[in-house]
């Protein structure tokens, strides 16, 4: 009997402890929004105020920030002020790539008794990347007999940013032979084509060099450039010509 009572008492005690911890772990969550690349020490928000905690409580209960995702701790807490601050570089592209939303998951941990608060930090994109072409030189060989309206697909510029901070338009250096046509696909990506608007003539111009510029929609606006090099190929569009219509010669008889 004594053995049975002892076991029952022990199990009840463990259950009480488990429930106690669970109750203190189920406290409110907080959410913040922060721009990427903010300086270390920048204030994200006052987490103590948002959770109704005094600064004295933070120190006495050894408040700290733990991360859910990796060993890198992007945020920390100032125990004197209760501010949640930037602790390490937050690079949205490195964390989330091209995802539409980017959220850091952190936890505020308090001890004696154990208390956990989930902290969600939405990382906002800034225009910190310029459009880039995969190659600086885009080469075409186009015959001089090509018809007006002929189209030639151009290399797409890439931008690590998203939304309006990504590539929004292309500009082509002004010239008499080509213009540019830009289409947008369902995913918002811009595709450009070189369009021939005036026939080429190799006898007048054997090659052309034009500057292609990709621009994003951020502020300040960023851009990237590439050179389009067109080699004009000869076509059999000219018949042989004599320099004069009549040639005269005098022959001396022996």
From TrEMBL:
Its main location: membrane. One of its GO terms (biological process) is anatomical structure morphogenesis. SUPFAM superfamilies: Cadherin-like (SSF49313). Keywords: Calcium, Cell adhesion, Glycoprotein, Membrane, Repeat, Signal, Transmembrane, Transmembrane helix. Residues 1-28 form the signal peptide. It is a single-pass membrane protein. Residues 77-133, 134-242 form the Cadherin domain. It is found in: Membrane. GO terms for cellular component: plasma membrane. PROSITE patterns: CADHERIN_1, CADHERIN_2. This is Cadherin domain-containing protein. It comes from Seriola dumerili.
């Amino acid at each position: 009997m004594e053995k049975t009572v002892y076991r029952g008492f022990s199990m009840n005690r463990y259950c009480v402890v488990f429930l106690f911890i669970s109750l203190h772990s189920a406290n409110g969550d907080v959410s913040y929004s922060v721009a990427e690349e903010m300086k270390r020490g920048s204030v994200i928000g006052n987490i103590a105020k948002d959770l109704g905690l005094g600064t004295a409580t933070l120190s006495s209960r050894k408040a700290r920030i733990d991360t859910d995702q990796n060993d890198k701790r992007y945020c920390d807490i100032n125990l004197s002020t209760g501010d949640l601050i930037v602790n390490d570089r937050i690079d949205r592209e490195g964390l989330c790539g091209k995802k539409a939303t980017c959220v850091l998951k952190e936890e505020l941990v308090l001890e004696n008794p154990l208390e956990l608060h989930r902290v969600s930090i939405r990382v906002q994109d800034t225009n910190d990347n310029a459009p880039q072409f995969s190659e600086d030189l885009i080469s075409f060989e186009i015959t001089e007999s090509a018809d007006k309206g002929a189209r030639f697909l151009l290399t797409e510029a890439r931008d690590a940013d998203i939304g309006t901070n990504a590539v929004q338009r292309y500009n082509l250096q002004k010239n008499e032979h080509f213009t540019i046509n830009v289409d947008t696909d369902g995913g918002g990506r811009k595709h450009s084509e070189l369009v021939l608007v005036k026939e080429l003539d190799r006898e007048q111009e054997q090659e052309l060099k034009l500057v292609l510029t990709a621009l994003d929609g951020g502020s300040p606006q960023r851009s990237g450039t590439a050179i389009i090099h067109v080699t004009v190929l000869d076509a059999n569009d000219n018949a042989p010509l004599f320099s004069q219509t009549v040639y005269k010669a005098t022959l001396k008889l022996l």
